[in-house]
Amino acid sequence: MSKMIGSNIIMGVMLLFIITGCSLSPGVETLYTQQPPLDTELSIVGDVQPDQEATVEVMVTNGDEPIQDAKVVFSVWKENDRENAIYMDGEPATNGMYTALLPVGTDGIYYVKAEATVSEKQTLTPIKRFVVGDLSEEEQDTIENDEQENHGGGGHHH
C-alpha cells in the first residue's frame, strides 16, 4: 500500500511539473507583437514611347509607415521575352518611394517588376503590364482577352 501511495505522489509531482513547465509567463503576449504587413504600389509614370526610358516607381510601406531602407531592383521585359529582361537598382526618392529609368525598345506590351526586400526578411515582387507605342491587333486582342478574364464573367464567386 505504501508503495502505491509513493508512486501516486511521484506521479502527482511529475504532473505538476509538466503542467507548470508548459504554461506561459504572464505578459508574454507583449513580447510577440504582430507587425503590419509590408505593401508595395508599383506604377509607371506617364505614357511610354518606343526607344525611350520608362520612369517606374514603387512605394514600399509597412502599414501606414513608409520604408526608407528597402533594397529595390526593377526589371523590365517585352512580352514573351523575359529571359532578356533589363535590371536596374531602384533609387530612394522620398517617403518610401523608389524610382528608376528603364529603357524600352519597340512598340508592344511590356512588364515591369519591382523586387523590394526589407531587412533581408521579406521580399515583395509586384508585376505590372504597360503598353509602349502602338499595339498590333494580336497584342490588342491579348490585352482585351486578359481584361475580360480578370474583370468580366458577370458571375459571383463564393
Automatic annotation (TrEMBL):
Pfam families: YtkA. Residues 50-113 form the YtkA-like domain. This is YtkA-like domain-containing protein. InterPro entries: YtkA-like_dom (IPR032693). Residues 137-158 are annotated as: Disordered. Residues 137-147 have a biased composition (Acidic residues).
